[in-house]
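Methods: example folding runs. The two proteins below were folded one after another, and each record is reproduced exactly as written to the output file, sequence line first and structure-token line second.
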Amino acid sequence: MKRCSLKSKDEIFLKAEEKTSKMKAARDRRRMLKKQLAKEAKLIGEDSLEILKEFEMLH
């Protein structure tokens, strides 16, 4: 069995880690914004229905 050893510079490894962490942060931020938007849309929808019912009761 042959063994292969790879040596890398710490600087290259750190840059790669930095880039992957930024990508993960962007995905997490997008996911969080999507959840927040869905939550707020639901609240707006509920408020709109309440207002509509109140207007219908006026007529």
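Second run, written to the same file directly after the first:
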Amino acid sequence: MIGSFGLLQSGTMLHVLRRLATAVARDPLPYLLGLAVFGLMTVWIAEQYLTTAPDQRLVDLEVYRDAGNSVLMGRPIYEWLTASPQLLPFTYPPISAVFAIPLAFVPLELLGWLWTAMQMVLLLGVIAVAYQPLARRFGRWSPVAVGALSGLMLWELPLRDGIRFGQVDIIIVALCAADYLARSPRWPRGMLIGIATAIKLTPGIFIVHLWLAGKRREAATAAATAAGLTAGAFLLLPGDSADFWFRALLEPDRLGANVNTSNQSLRGILLRFGLDSGLVWLPIVALVAWYGLRVAVRASRSGHHLAALAAVGLLAVLLSPVAWIHHLAWVAIVIAVVVGDGSNRRLVWLAAGIWAFYYLKIPWWGAGLDNHGVPIILARLVEDGFGLVAIALLVLIGRVVDRTAPPTAAPTEPDTGTRLLLKRLPGQGQAGSLQPGHDGQQREQAPGQPAHRR
């Protein structure tokens, strides 16, 4: 299963399927066992959420499907609500409704099974790539390790909620991971982040990171892709596009009660403490954005792209005005950064602790503590646990990056003989310079890459 999401590392889906088929044909047993382990670990989740009462089943997937139907029927996308008792509006940009058109042709019950299977396949692929250093330790049986790790990650509350509601979070994670982790992509790097941004807006923070990390071409590609899709939606759905950008987007309460426990963004945390003011929220957002982007840029420049992905993913949650618990699917990537190749036992135990924390329903425990005599501040801290720990994880990612980054080679002064030799050789510049013909030119790094290291 290490190669089962080769789309993140090499080219087209056809190439991926060819590589996967070759690997399975060569040694099918580890892959079959890996799928069996994953199935046994996750069958309860699928059965639980796909057979619940119809009015509670996959309620967000129903929103997407209804949006696709709205496009086909010509009804206003942002005025339509799903069936009672949920009565949920569509809250994504218009291009997302266009992408949802195929969903309208599939019965909701069948669509639920297909959507859940897709989420699980994407999760397997993301885990196969993100946990590759750890899985390699198992040699031939690395597909079994990937199956077990994927099963564990699906039991985290954010990913469980993704299955429960029929959400798109793992799709967003996969798109961004593909752009960050692909070694030689057969698409313009940045394009997938642009698609993710057009679908959900919050991945736009990845464009900011690419720009700050010196990856200007990738950032421009992402921005152009998002802008192009948005412009295309304006051409196809001019009324709905105007309605979204000039009305619906400016009404955060359309997303639900912003003070709800599930809103684990910085703004949600502040709202539950009674701090409903932009004068408080915006400076905190700026501070967290500055710190998180600093960590991510440092990770990119040291070659730790997985850590950069994890840090920016957390920022996409924390900086958003509203970010529900299922948006924290990025925690699966954070755990991969912390555990690394599994050689550091202390980090392995720390990664296990992070998994256990996000497995438990801690915010919901905190929501009722003040009714049992617990001081209100302590109750709120527990209720805000997922968001507060996400901030701490940004700090932890920075520590991991600093720990794993190779040390910078100290500059050395050439001796007298070397200086004389450099002066006598034709076309040579000063010692240590990158003038034409100098040996240092061969080691010059591409923009955004770390400096020459020992």
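Comment on the second run: Residues 252-408 form one domain.
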